[in-house]
Amino acid sequence: MGTASFNHPCGITALDHENCRVLAPKAELSRSCYPSRGGDSSSRLNLSSVPKEFGAQVRALPNVGDFFWEKSPTPMLDMIENPMHMKNLSLKDLKQLADEIRSELSFLTSKIRRPFKASLAVVELTIAIHYVFNAPVDKILWDIGEQTYVHKILTGRRSLMHTLRQKNGLSGFTSRSESEYDAFGAAHGCNSVSAGLGMAIARDIKGKRDRIVTVISNETTMTGQIYEAMSNAGYLDSNMVVILNDSRHSLHPKLEEGPKTAITALSSTFSKLQSSKSFRQLREVAKGVTKRIGGGMHELAAKVDEYARGMMGPRGSTLFEELGLYYIGPVDGHNIDDLVCVLKQVASLDSTGPVLIHVVTEEDRGSDDGQQREVPTKHPEGSFSTNSSYLNLISSSLSRTYGDCFVEALVSEAKRDNEIVVVHAGMEMDPALQLFHETFPDRFFDVGMAEQHAVTFAAGLACGGMKPFCVIPSTYLQRAYDQVVLDVDQQRVPVRFVITTAGLIGFDGPTLSGAFDITFMSCLPNMIVMAPSDEDELVNMVATAAHMDDQPICFRYPRGAIGWMNSQLGNGIPLEIGRGRVLVEGKDVALLGYGVMVQNCLKAQSLLASLGIHVTVADARFCKPLDIKLVRQLCEDHTFLITVEEGSVGGFGSHIAQFIALDGHLDGKVKWRPIVLPDNYIEHASPKEQHALAGLSGHHIAATALSLLGRTRDALQLMR
Question: CB of 498 within 8 A of CB of 471?
């Protein structure tokens, strides 16, 4: 690909700071590829205040006086406002740029205490992609948000990286509303090939010539959707590039069992040969000749070609060939020369069909790796990486989570019942589960990002006489809903679903929040649905699930620390199915909470008590079956009933409404108000900020009660 000269249209100003010449343009907003003038000069830009006509797309470099001056000089990076500015750089310049970006990421890690380990692995790869391809005309798609931070830096969002995952700051994922360079939103790690193929077919139908590049990872290769998409891509034979970022150095699903992929001079040369224009043209000519010869010659030649290249490639590479993708690799993911060479060759031909480039990278690449590893890694599932700092942290009473309490309770049950097993699915395993894994290694099964398999696998275990606890984060359980319905609930198979990371989860935003599980689980005819209000109730619900052997059951718990816990948890006591409890008795208003929202109901009760209002607080425990006796009593004893849940419309409140309507309570004196998550996605912020935005805080609940009582002025005063 040729290079293109480009005059900086962004108003870049040269500044001298401590003998370092730096380019520092203003932050600007635009809908086009090139920034327009007149943007906000502050690097701390509030995305929510951006006018709609600008599409909330941000481009900015660090400004003088910001905390960026504490870092090492990055003269090459300071010149990059968008990928077009890279086109005139030499390979030597690109290597310097990679070093500076790696330094920038390490600096950001130390400042905002957020890990960039996955992005450190793809520094050179991201640079090479943007150097060869022409985004945003060419579409670049990513599977995992943690790998996109270099992409964000190179596409005009560098000065806002310190706002990552904060309220009104940058998303932790790619976002079409955030930047025109984000062709598609990175979600649960398996969508980029499917979306990319759709874009490729749309391009072909419209007669366009833009390129489609998708980047997947080791975790992605454990999902079924990837192989469905690759198979369809091979069948449709549309031009697209799939890049496998192999940071594990293995295509084997279990790293400890598979051979490591080695990058040698021979493999590097072979990768360049595979991607070369002349080799592929010769290969296409040979295909045409064998087709004309007929008599099975074409099929035989294809098998010989696949076998020969499979002998040279790493173990597992022929799988991609069988799916219809032309395999190239392995390529050293930290060798700029090789990456640019291979990508240019792949981009040079107009008719290649789908190509998979196997790139081997290292997550610990960089000079500040030691510091990088010390930062607890927040994973999409909501757990930290298993490192010594975290393991030391969870031993203190202040840092215990619901996950810790769940695992301790389950281990206690499993010691008494050798039929209890655990099936875990999701991206990263909660470190708390290591306790069960270490205690019962033969009764623990981590299937990775294969939620559909996990559900049906658990159903098979249950049919075989075991007692499976299927542990899946709420957002990932959505992918396995068909299996939950047909393989479990319809057949009344006693699988015990443990729905983690439920509700609003803070800085990971709506992509990984668990807003819908109450609704989609409670509508199933045979499913028992419950949620604990605190850690003691969680222990009891573990015992309840362990003793359930004739139908499926589920319970949810949120991410985050519980608070102060001085004593060890006791043994759980099985709860009576469909029986709630009253925590505080009053006469003016009844607050019926579900799950951890009971705690916010208690906060509201305390606020209202100071205003002379006597409030009843009840813990529903069960969404299905409801405690009909408790609900009926609350309606008979109170004029006002407020239900509170951390879930979407259609969940606990809807079940309450259905009952009290059919029972005739809405025909009389009772005034009912549901408090649920709003009908929109709550963007990334702190959990406290998210609860305030959703109207679920104790103050919001108390204000709702005051409004029902006609004390509007007090309600407004409370919310100030």
Answer: yes
